[in-house]
Amino acid sequence: DLVEKVGDLSDENAKLAMKCQRLEENEAQHKEELAQLECVKEECEVLHQSMEEAMEMATGMSDGMAKMVKNHKSSVQDYQRRMVELNAKLLSANLAQKRTDAKLEEANAQLIKA
Predict the structure, then answer these.
(1) Is the pLDDT of residue 19 over 70?
(2) Over 80: is that where the pLDDT of 20 sits?
(3) What is the CA radius of gyration of the chain?
(4) What is the 3-state secondary structure of the chain?
(5) Over 90: is that where the pLDDT of 15 sits?
(6) Phi-psi sector, 87: left (phi>0), alpha (psi -120 to 50), beta
(7) Alpha-carbon distance 83 to 45, whole Å?
(8) How confident is the model over 44-96, as pLDDT tens digits?
(9) Global pTM?
(10) Could you give the CA distance from residue 23 to residue 105 in angstroms, rounded to a whole number?
């Protein structure tokens, strides 16, 4: 009986170790997505600053300014779309991590009861 229980505990420990590894992988992916999101935010800030400077320099040159604003607007929309996509990925990763955390907690609770 004791050997069987030790075997069961060893199996459960292996499962928990795999869950921990998946959680660590999810966490690493989450950190990577956060870093990507931060890069996009920085790019947006630079883009907005660039737009402001361009508009100040283009005073009196309405044709050139209109063309530049159009190009910048398109870039901002692209960055906003990328931010929405990355936020969705981040939310998905957070949900997956929460589910994994809950499963891990449940498995730990079962292991403690045993």
Answers:
(1) yes
(2) yes
(3) 25
(4) CHHHHHHHHHHHHHHHHHHHHHHHHHHHHHHHHHHHHHHHHHHHHHHHHHHHHHHHHCCCCHHHHHHHHHHHHHHHHHHHHHHHHHHHHHHHHHHHHHHHHHHHHHHHHHHHHC
(5) yes
(6) alpha
(7) 13
(8) 898 889 888 877 776 657 776 677 788 888 888 888 999 999 999 999 999 99
(9) 0.37
(10) 12
User: From CA 61, how far away is CA 56, in angstroms rounded?
Assistant: 10
Altogether, the residues listed in the chain come to a count of: 114
Question: Would you say the C-alpha torsion 92, 93, 98, 104 has a positive or negative sign?
Answer: positive
Cβ count within 10 A of residue 89: 15
Burial class (CB in 10 A: 0-12, 13-18, 19+), 113: exposed
- Within 8 A by CB and 6+ apart from 76, the residues are 44, 47, 48, 51
Dihedral, CA of residue 89, residue 38, residue 74 and residue 91, to nearest 10: 20
Please tell me the predicted confidence (pLDDT) of residue 14. 93
> Which percentage of the chain shows pLDDT scores above 70?
95
